[in-house]
Amino acid sequence: MNRMVIALLAALVFGNVAQAAPAREPARMVDPFVGTLADFGQLSPAAVAPYGMVQLGPDTTPANHAGYDYAATQLTGFSHTRGVGVGCGGAGGDVKVTLAYGDPAPSAPIDKRHERAHAGYYSVRYGPGIVADMTATRGAGSVRFTLPKSGQVAVVVAFDRGYSKRIAARWQAQPDGDLRASFSAGTVCDVGTYHLHSATRLTHNGKALAAVWQGDAAKDARVMLNVRGGDIVELRTGLSSVDPSAAAAVRDSELGNRPFQAIAAQTVADWNRQLSRITIGGPPKQQALFYTSLFRVMQSPVAIADPDGRFRGSDGVVKQLSRGDQHYTSWALWDNYRTQMPLLALIDPERAGQIARSLVRLYQSGKKRWATQTEPFLTVRTEHAGIALLDFRRKGIVDFDAKAALAGMVAESATLARKTPDEQIEAAYDDWAIAELASDLGETAIGQDFRTKALSYRSMWRATFRDLGDDADIVKARGLYQGTLAQYRWAPVFDLPWLAQTLGPKFQPELERFFADNLFNMTNQPDIHVPYLFAWAGDKAGTERIVRRYITQSVPHRYVNSGVRPQPWVGHSFALSPQGFADGMDDDAGTMSAWYIWAMLGLYPLTPGEPRYVITTPMAQNIRINGRALADMAFQQSIFLSSLRSLGGQ
User: Fold this and answer.
1) Which of 61, 230, 290, 322 has a 20 to 30 A CA-CA distance from 535?
2) Band of pLDDT at residue 631, cut at 50, 70 and 90
């Protein structure tokens, strides 16, 4: 391990934290509607705090995987949880609140002229003119309804609805009207089950009501209220992985008796503080897309420990953290270990340390490839956690038990899928990470064994990828999970010197042909690193040409996860609009948004697990990371420039 590299990285991320603020508050430059149209991003405009459990926002019909479609004109209610840019059918949609005059209809028209949002806040007018405003903290949320006329309204809180398979729900009202519930549902792709608890307090014009909730205890609770024009009805809800009483404590701790405006203002301040970890200059629209992308990056993983330090692990057991620590879940590591996790390591090392400790606890509590039946929150998948841990440690984030991490990684290796070409490459990367971490920790025998195991994929690569055949451009050919052989050909980023040596003089021409024949897929993860191979091999201009094209131009996108389109979809990969992303591109827990951020910075973590970055010309101006200007870093070449020589290999 190069201690100088660690020291230099530490100087970058822990350096002067006095930050040059952009011209406007970054939280108010964020446009949460980006990526909320149809199958463009699978995002939601929900109110959320940085890394928060609560995503309080609108549900529409029709809807995307996150419960909302920008083009929809009918509102079905407001729910408190959702995945961030995930595929399948999504997950979440819990604790769904509706308010309507008389008997609630299945949906109400949205007044799109009066719909707005920024980081931590969402507002809409619907039905006969009801205005709903939402804000959130880490574990609690408030939805405030302003009523346009006198009459009787029905307030309904449903616990049996959501975006995935509903398994169980049970609510009970306390004598003072506090509505408490426990519910279970299938997590993303209905692989595994999450179990969650809530506590909801109803107020009318600022006064808590001893509401008499009625309804089916396994479905929804409702109450009727007599109101006048201008009245305000507010529901405040806490979530906890522990139990309903803990959810009430979360709500009371995080929201208290503060007015709605004060809660919303504090959440905006929290977002400004987090988003200002990176500051840029440049045109307003560019800044808006940049901060919107960073906003998406900072929603995963999710912090689930209650203010008292308790949380329930993926094994279903309640655990207690030390004061000041936090536990994270809601993993999508197969996607975001590539871009999003390395970005957090660069800009927020303290949080990255908390995430690392959370991953170690996950290994110790029975880590599964996707999800367990006792998840504390909705989640996706956990592959490549060991690569993320190695990457954190080699970038100076060492406040986690690396030996425990290594033990978990070694045990996991025996369970990894190794049948198809992509599985063999991905398992080899995990084994490489074990070898590297073991070597760093002085475990020489383990390091040697797993280096041999990792490199055993090479014979398969020679037979499958060195000379591509007629099935090179067939999605899922030879059992690939997603992507094509032409795309997975470039996947062994941990073994790039050998890859280049094996292709020999064909390396650069084959890269050129890959892009000339439009074999690159910007809408999915397996090959998103490939543009940076040019710079790695010494052709910085080649990387910049391709990256700039995908950042700034309308391009033909040929692929969906299931195949090649009959005709390419032509459009921008990233845009400041409800479309937001190329058709079929899920943001996948900030993975794609982080790719955009790296492109703007002029850096790329080509090999997570190595403390180096490919360097290109930044596409943003006046970049500062935690107060340090990239242009002022005389040592940047020693940190950022990867090459055939500096990466090493066998």
Assistant:
1) 290
2) low
Alpha helices in 257-323 (DSSP H): 260-275, 284-297
List CB contacts of 497: < 8 A, sequence separation 6 or more.
Answer: 644, 647, 648, 649
pLDDT tens, 287-314?
Answer: 999 999 999 999 999 999 999 999 999 9
Point out which residues pair with 329 in neighbouring strands.
302
Q: What is the DSSP letter of 209?
A: -
| Distance, first Cα to last Cα, the chain | 16
Which of helix, strand or coil describes residue 214? strand
Q: What is the 3-state secondary structure (H, E, C) of 30-83?
A: CCCCCCCCCCCECCCCCECCCCCCCCEEEEEECCCCCCCCCCCCEEEEEECCEC
**276 and 25 Cβ atoms separated by less than 8 Å:** no
Tokens 């809660």 appear where? 263
- Domain 32-275 top-level CATH class: mainly beta
**CA 82 vs CA 33, 56, 78, 87, 180: distances in Å:** 15, 8, 11, 12, 20
Phi, psi of 77, rounded to the nearest 5 degrees: 150, -165
CA dihedral of residues 607, 535, 464, 561 (deg, nearest 10): 70
For the chain, helix (H) and strand (E) counts, in that order, are 21, 25
Confidence of residue 84 (pLDDT cuts 50, 70, 90): confident
What's the gap between Cα 552 and its chain centre?
Answer: 23
pLDDT at site 644: 31
- Give me the mean pLDDT over the 67-96 stretch: 95
Q: Residue 6: which pLDDT band, with cuts at 50, 70 and 90?
A: very low
Are 79 and 93 in contact, with CB atoms under 8 Å apart? yes
Check pLDDT > 70 for residue 650.
Answer: no
Backbone angles phi, psi at 324, to 5 degrees: 90, -10
CB atoms under 10 Å from CB of 471, counted, come to 12
Phi, psi for 78 (deg, rounded to 5): -135, 125
Question: Which of 387, 437, 352, 355 lies closest to 10, judged by CA?
Answer: 352
Kindly report, residue by residue over 134-171, the tens digit of the pLDDT. 999 999 999 999 999 999 999 999 999 999 999 999 99
Is 614:641 a contact under the CB 8 Å cutoff? Answer: yes
| Higher per-residue confidence, 366 vs 303 | 303
Question: Given 3-state DSSP classes, what are the helix, strand and coil percentages for the chain, each rounded to the nearest 5?
Answer: 35, 25, 40
What is the rounded distance in angstroms from the CA atom of residue 69 to the CA atom of residue 59? 8
Burial class of residue 466 in the structure, from the number of CB atoms within 10 Å of its CB (0-12 exposed, 13-18 middle, 19+ buried): middle
Sign of the C-alpha dihedral computed for residues 386, 392, 396 and 399 taken in this order: negative
Nearest to 214 by CA among 297, 295, 155, 292: 155
Average pLDDT of the chain to the nearest whole number: 93
Taking the complete model, does pTM exceed 0.70, yes or no? yes
Rounded Cα distance between 636 and 630, Å, is 8
pLDDT of residue 23: 53
Sequence ranges of the domains in the chain = 3-18+304-647, 32-275
Dist. CA 175–CA 455, nearest whole Å: 64
Specify whether domain 3-18+304-647 bears CATH 3.40.190: no
